[in-house]
Amino acid sequence: MLIQCTKKLLQELKVDVVTEVDEDPLHSWHANLIKLGRKKVVVFTNDQNRYAIVLYGVKAKDLKKLDELLLEGMERAFEAEGIKQEIIDQLIQNAGKTSYAKTKNPTTVARLNKACENVEFGEDMIDPDSLFQEELSQWVSSMMYGDGKNSYIHPNEELYKDLEKLSGAPIFNTEAVELKVTLELRDYTIWRRLRIPTNTTFSHFHRILQAAFGWMDSHLHDFMIYSTENELPLVNLVSSTHAFEFQGETTMVLESGKKLSDYLPSQMVYTYDYGDYWVHRIEVEKIIETAHSNVPVCLDGEGSAPPEDVGGEGGFEEFLHIIRDPIHSDYEHMVSWGAAQGYEPFDRDEVNFWLKK
Questions:
Q1: Using one digit for the tens of pLDDT, what is the confidence trace for 124-177?
Q2: 35 and 158 fall within a common domain
Q3: Among 19, 277, 305, 337, which one is most buried in terms of CB atoms within 10 A?
Q4: Domain boundary residue among 167, 188, 222?
Q5: Same-domain check for residues 71 and 115
Q6: Hey, is 234 helix, strand or coil?
Q7: For position 194, what pLDDT does the model report?
Q8: Which of 167, 186, 206 is the last residue before a domain boundary?
Q9: Domain that holds residue 263
Q10: CB atoms < 10 A from the CB of 199, how many?
Q11: Are strands 28-36 and 2-5 parallel, antiparallel or unpaired?
Q12: Which residues are within 8 A (CB) of 71 and not within 5 positions of it... i.e. 6 or more apart?
């Protein structure tokens, strides 16, 4: 395995570097050292598929075994992707002995820098208690990047292709759950049926629900988990430490790092936007023991979710009243405003397009 380091990282590593080495792009990585606040972060990108591995809060003792941490970071991220363990083991075994080198390809360095920018952009996804940032690694690797040939790639999809070629077989073997998510409204029926890998984190689940209902992720949210025995609240998963200022009777825990599998088959409630207060009831319908895909899927649904900042259910009723009356004095304005706020007919194909991103 070859790790080609930026000058900044090499100054911290203090290792011997090679000048001539046979490169296998699948086992060759570029690495950079950046800072998020006061914490040191090492970002790796694979030379062949551009998949990113992120280590957070790196200390001097970690730098002495950076190659081992990269391999462990790969294993954790690929497990989180739902990739079969035997394929991960094969990839790591094939990596071989580690050599360090200076960066020498400007194009690859530019790609590394872009990944670092996206790590900074996704800083709110950091799990502050973990060196290994699987969720952030997955997110950065799912983004769209130019390939220099007037087209675009997603590094995670490129990784899947590489591993399928390596193994000659399907690479996914993950448990999934089918959920029915209903937006609780008095007079309107709005719901989505989703199939999601059970190793999905709640932070990712939040983004899935945003895509499924057409929300724009402009407000805070939380998940309430209920007991299957007596339907009493078990835990309140929150997205921000600011929520602890409003601690209620139910134990609050940061959602970061928590997975659906930690709480299934419990029923859940997802609340989005504490002003308009959109409550989504989540029912577990089916557990699928073996799914050969790690991509969340919208299976069915009904109804268009309200536009952002419409003013709760009362505002939604007024909005619908106006847009259903072409001769209303506010009709054109409200139709235009609704479109800008994300209001559009439910389209399962479009939802699934965004769920792949």
A1: 889 888 999 999 999 999 998 887 777 899 999 999 999 999 999 889 978 999
A2: yes
A3: 305
A4: 167
A5: yes
A6: strand
A7: 98
A8: 167
A9: 174-355
A10: 19
A11: parallel
A12: 1, 92, 95
Give pTM, 2 decimals: 0.81
Q: CA 26 to CA 161: how far, in whole Å?
A: 11
* Contact between 299 and 307 (Cβ < 8 Å): no
Q: CA angle at residue 219 from 185 to 239, to 5 degrees?
A: 105
Structure tokens at 245: 């200022």
Residues 117 and 178 in one domain: no
- Rounded to whole angstroms, the Cα distance separating 120 from 125 reads 10
Q: In one letter, which amino acid is 244?
A: F
Same domain, 345 and 213: yes
DSSP 150: S
What CATH number has the domain bearing residue 333? 3.10.290.30
What backbone phi and psi angles, to 5 degrees, belong to 131?
Answer: -70, -40
Total domain count for the chain?
A: 2
49 SS3 class: coil
User: Which of 236, 243, 204, 245 is closest to 220 using CA atoms?
Assistant: 243
